[in-house]
Design goal:
Elements lengths: L2 H8 L3 H13 L5 E2 L5 E2 L2 H15 L5 H11 L3 H7 L12 H67 L1
Antiparallel strand pairs: 1-2
């Protein structure tokens, strides 16, 4: 397959196919090439590009990180031809679904932590409100105590005058 064919299969533009391919090659991935140096994409290469697309679009990885993850785990065309297999996934390969599940689990754990933090923030807000009310009540008790002391003093004076 040429880049125009693989771009329609993967659902990305030809320029993005070339961008991903170049990034994969920089990470050590090898594409089969024709006599003019043009890349020839196998079904396996198409799946590799689909993994990069998925990591960059759905999981928001940069192209550099996504290609490093994929190129580090995928076998190159030369390795596949040596093993003479058409199977797109080898046992020792990168398990995309496992990574996707791990990322989803991590996202769920993150959301649980975020919810817990929100609960703590709500509790903190209630505690601060109660603390403010307690301070106001303390001031009121102090004022009433001073008022009582003043009234007791007045009462003593009235009693001493009446005696």
């Amino acid at each position: 397959m040429r880049s125009n064919e693989v771009s329609s299969e993967v659902g990305i533009s030809e320029s993005v196919v070339r961008k991903y391919s170049l990034a994969l090659e920089r990470k050590g991935y090898v594409f089969k090439k024709d006599e003019f140096g043009g890349r020839y994409y196998s079904k396996y290469d198409q799946e590799t590009l689909e993994m990069v697309r998925s990591l960059t679009q759905q999981n928001r990885y940069t192209v550099g990180v996504a290609t490093e993850m994929v190129a580090g785990k995928r076998k190159t065309v030369a390795t596949i031809e040596e093993k003479q297999t058409d199977s797109p996934l080898l046992e020792e390969e990168f398990d995309y679904m496992q990574l996707k599940n791990h990322l989803e689990n991590t996202r769920q754990e993150f959301n649980k932590i975020k919810d817990t933090i929100k609960s703590f923030e709500d509790i903190l807000e209630v505690n601060l409100s109660l603390l403010q009310k307690l301070g106001e009540a303390k001031n009121e008790v102090e004022m009433k105590s001073n008022e009582n002391a003043y009234l007791e003093e007045k009462l003593r004076k009235v009693i001493s005058i009446l005696q």
